[in-house]
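From the pipeline queue, job 12 of 40. The input is one protein chain; the requested action is below.

Action: predict structure.
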Amino acid sequence: MKKLKILLFIILMSLSINVYAIEFDLNSQHAILYNLNDNSVLYEKSSKDKTSIASMTKIMTGIVAIENIENLDNKVKLTYADFAGLAEANAAVAGFRIGEEVTYKDLLYGLMLPSGADAAQSLTRNIAGSTEKFIEMMNQKAKDLGCKNTHFVNPTGLDHQEHYSTVEDVATIFQYAIKNEKFLEIIKTKTYTTSNGRLTFKSTIQRAKERYGLGMDYVLGGKTGTTGDAGYCLATIANHNGVDYMLVTAKTFFPSTQPLNYQDAKTIYEYFMNNYGYKNVLSKKDKLVSIKTKYAKNDQVTFYANKELEMYLENSYNKDELIYKYSGIEEIPYDMKKGTKLGKVEVYNKDTLLTTVEIVLEEEQEFDLIKFIKINKFQVGIVVLSIILLITIITTLIIKKKKKKKKND
């Protein structure tokens, strides 16, 4: 069942690509923005290029952990192994202590909110038996999701030449992860206090919003990341006017006093939020095309939209300017069967194809004899005259035969 869900997810991911030709002056070297409502890519910049992704790695760590924990309230004890190498690498930690007993839930919140490497290593050791085994699970999940340019060598995102991904692949992993209710709940949480009451975590994204006065209330949550090679990375989900967005950026370099990765996010999000939205393209009974008939009581059959359709379009969109282009059968014969596919109508907004509607005959046409005679009066006249002539000849022959017989009698 899990493999079927992953297959369906991959199919959905491949259905809609609609990149807008927009250029932004960004500090981030890599970026990709999704409209999650219809799974379309709105903007991308070097999204397929391999790069270090820092702690955005923990998105994969988190979802693999959640999918392999039977009970999030079960407790585990942190050991020396959970802290090995973290101080030397100057890795961010959640603040757990050696020998402390916490729940898996505590570790997950410690992983995702303050980006704790201690939580990452404890989760991987307790779930898989070793960090190495857990990394194998992470790489297998990336493969299952169709991520072709991703490879993990640690669960934390620390720089390593064999640890890489792309913002496109990170977005794929992130989209998959937020379909899990527990994962989504965690990344949307602003603060969390551990079950023993000792630690209170604040989301790194919430902390930055407050520190820099960013506003950006439409950002619901996500994951940050920072290393020397990856620069500042940011994966977020947002909502505005009923539209769900996801943005992933990587490799922004700046002093800590200038949150340029958030400024990039604000630039991209607000451009689309201010200039685009869902607009009505088709309403039921919108007239699409009229097709003439042959020998039927109705001179033509008019076809209407049979569905409601809204699409994500520029605010300058005007439905009255839509162009309908029909291609298919130009004349419907009276004896055509119901359900016959006649052709299609392509709906254009200026030069952009928005959608295609299949035109199908919904009712059989009633034959009109008078119309048939009017249209084919010359041919009908010849047939009538031929019949009259034939009757005349036959009648004449019968009369002659009777006269001959009478004479012989």
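Job complete. The chain is about 35% helix and 25% strand.
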